[in-house]
Amino acid sequence: MSFVRFETMAKVIELGSFTAAAEALNMTQSAVSHAVASLETEWGVSLFIRDRKKGIMLTDIGRTLLPHIREVLNRVEKIQQEIALTKNIETGLIRIGTFASASACLLPKLLVSYQKKHPKIEFKFYEGTYEEILEWLHSGIIDVGFVVKGEADEAFDLLPLIQDEMVVAYHENHRFQQQPIVEMAELADEPFIMPTGMYQSHVEDIFSKAHIKPATLFEVHDCTTIARMVGEGLGVTIGPKLFLKTQQHVQISQLNVAHHREVALACPALTHASPAVKEFFHVAESVFAKDRNSVKGV
């Protein structure tokens, strides 16, 4: 059984077409089709549904087998890394899931330190929502993910990185602009933009402890959309400083009640991870332990 066929099937699903998979793998489209067809013939099952309107979809058995195929490919990658280490040759690929603010504020510092020590290790990045990152970890699409502690599943090994302060955000000409600290009571009558999902539980907890009911005008899921609405003066919001401090036309202030979310690295099982991933965790621990206090609330 050829691992190339496994890699081909996984790439077709990842990219959504035989043509894109062929280009990524430097193969002809007919070679990709043949690899998938040979798997289907060997196993006696159909792995894909080919629909002109919806494109490529997995069959039920295909969805069942895909996590096992990814696990085999991950094991092969680990074997190759272990062999390379015995020859004093570093090689490997780390697939990282990250959300926007982690990509901008945390990942670059970590990558600089890692690549100084291990310049030959390659990286592939997947940027998405918190929920998508957890799903990618579960399904084996990524090796490591930036997550928010408390929202991550107990099935993962976690390395806490920073304490990200929850702050109030408002339009740059709002009356709060001269206030470094905003009292929770001052938010009672402010048009409020409530996040749904993401860090909603943190925001609700802040209001609950202050015994205040927000004057919610909008409920929005996408954090970038929330920031743009705040920047247009449609309301105020509460959210993580790591993200909000990077947004245009948005000002932030501390709240008179302290509340943080903890950003962490997650891995399905660190003891079974590849040498490259284990070293990634080791470097991350070193980087963020050195200046945890200065990074706190970045």
Give structural attributes.
298 residues, alpha/beta, Arc Repressor Mutant, subunit A, D-Maltodextrin-Binding Protein, domain 2, 8-stranded mixed beta sheet, 12 strands, globular, disordered C terminus
Strand content: 15-25%
Let me know the largest β-sheet: 8 strands, mixed
Structural class: alpha/beta
Mean pLDDT: 86
CATH architecture classification name of the domain at 164-260: 3-Layer(aba) Sandwich
Helix content: 40-55%
User: How far is it from the N-terminal to the C-terminal residue, by CA?
Assistant: 49 Å
CATH topology type of the domain at 164-260: D-Maltodextrin-Binding Protein, domain 2
Oligomeric category: single chain
Extract low-pLDDT stretches.
Answer: 293-298
User: Over the alpha carbons, how many angstroms does the gyration radius reach?
Assistant: 23 Å
Q: What is the CATH level 1 assignment of the domain at 164-260?
A: Alpha Beta
Shape: globular
**Total beta-strand segments:** 12
Number of DSSP helical runs: 12
**Pattern of helices and strands:** HHHEEHEHHEHEEEEHEHEHEEHH
Organism: Bacillus xiamenensis
Domain HTH lysR-type: 1-59
Protein name: LysR family transcriptional regulator
GO molecular function, one term: DNA-binding transcription factor activity
Describe this protein's structure.
By secondary structure, the chain is an alpha/beta fold. Among the domains are: 1-89, Winged helix-like DNA-binding domain superfamily/Winged helix DNA-binding domain (Arc Repressor Mutant, subunit A), CATH 1.10.10.10; 164-260, D-Maltodextrin-Binding Protein, domain 2, CATH 3.40.190.290. It has 12 helices and 12 strands. The strands form 3 sheets. Strands 3, 4, 5, 6, 7, 10, 11 and 12 form an 8-stranded mixed sheet that branches. A two-stranded antiparallel ribbon has the order 1-2. A two-stranded parallel sheet has the order 8-9. The longest helix is centred in the first third of the chain and has 27 residues, at 60-86.
